[in-house]
Design brief:
Length: about 170
């Protein structure tokens, strides 16, 4: 095996050893390990310092990405037109006033930009489309859940971010 630093051939003493035991190579190895540990600690500290609004935004971005992927081959939930290259993850119940269903997959569907942004959700047609997709019983449950009071915690948001990142990888 060749040393990662000096490129000399050496026999590793430990499994996965990438540096020979010359003093300069050991110094480089230790420096790299310290940097690696510091970067790991820095990421942990950064994660702990994230505010609730920052986490909410990150969770929303990750969740919406998943919804767009899930609905990419479906038509717009409101107008039934094929979704183009750019489309939104439209919420039936808005994110602002209905926190309990912000991350509910039944509440969010692929929606064309025209319906979501220019027609303010095109809600009458959205209700018809959502009922066709999830059924009347789940829509009634969604209505009940939408009016519950919800305050997200950091742990819940971290869980949502992890969950939807995992779903995006599948």
């Amino acid at each position: 095996m060749r040393c990662k630093n000096c490129k000399e051939v050496f026999t590793p003493v430990k499994f996965n050893q990438k540096f020979c035991l010359e003093s300069e190579c050991v110094r480089v190895w230790v420096k790299l390990e310290k940097e690696k540990q510091w970067n790991k600690k820095k990421k942990q500290l950064k994660d702990e310092l994230q505010t609730l609004p920052e986490l909410l935004k990150l969770a929303q971005i990750t969740f919406n990405k998943y919804i767009r992927l899930r609905d990419k081959d479906k038509p717009c939930v409101s107008c039934e037109k094929p979704l183009g290259a750019k489309y939104d993850a439209g919420h039936y119940f808005s994110m602002g006033g209905h926190k309990a269903v912000t991350f509910d997959e039944d509440n969010v569907h692929g929606q064309c930009v025209t319906c979501n942004q220019y027609k303010h959700g095109n809600l009458l047609n959205y209700q018809i489309g959502i009922q066709q997709r999830i059924g009347a019983d789940r829509l009634i449950e969604l209505h009940a859940k939408a009016h519950e009071v919800k305050k997200w915690t950091k742990d819940e948001l971290y869980g949502i971010i992890r969950c939807y990142k995992k779903k995006l990888k599948l």
